[in-house]
Amino acid sequence: MGVKIDVYNQEGKVVGDATLPKGIFEVKLNTDLVHQIAVSLSANNRQISAHTKNRGEVSGGGKKPWRQKGTGRARHGSIRSPLWKGGGVTHGPRVERVFEKDIPKKMRRKALFMVLSQKAKNKQLVVLDKIELEKGKTKEMAKSLAKLPCYSQATLIALPNYDKKIFLASRNIKKTSVEDARNLNVLQLLNHKYLLLTKESIKTIENTFNK
Description:
Blueprint: E1 3-8, E2 14-20, H1 22-25, H2 31-45, H3 105-121, E3 125-128, H4 138-145, E4 155-159, H5 164-170, E5 176-180, H6 186-190, E6 194-198, H7 199-209
Parallel strand pairs: 1-3, 3-6, 4-5, 4-6
Antiparallel strand pairs: 1-2
């Protein structure tokens, strides 16, 4: 058996409770492991944009600037040399750099359970009976969130399945993100103070990760 947690409706009233799976929401924290996984996920998400050209990529330089001897000047073979203005860059940033790190599945899953457990322990986990929007408007979603303990705080809403209506209604609400429960990761949870689940989302997490 797991720990009991209150279940709210969209009016912000407690309408029952749910049992959180002990193997997911009562896992002892290992800060070193969580930090390692968070750093690895950040590295894997890193976008490389800085790129410098080396001497083989800059234009020009097909001809020797001047003859080898007799001019009194230092010898040069190409204006593409890093010594020249407009020449190639030595040891500059390149898009070929690889920052990705392999993350063992068991470690990633264990760290996820630890962060989920901390959310539950610190009362930063909010469970709804369901989320239903009649018109799929941002005003509807904002009105529901305003009645919950996570109001005005950075909140990650984890849905049991992708719901376009809820996604569109939430994306313009400040400090609010929406994700499919089966795609949750440590970095997302650490970047949001609160996690908002539905009762079905708990089942999705259990079926996806507790294998």
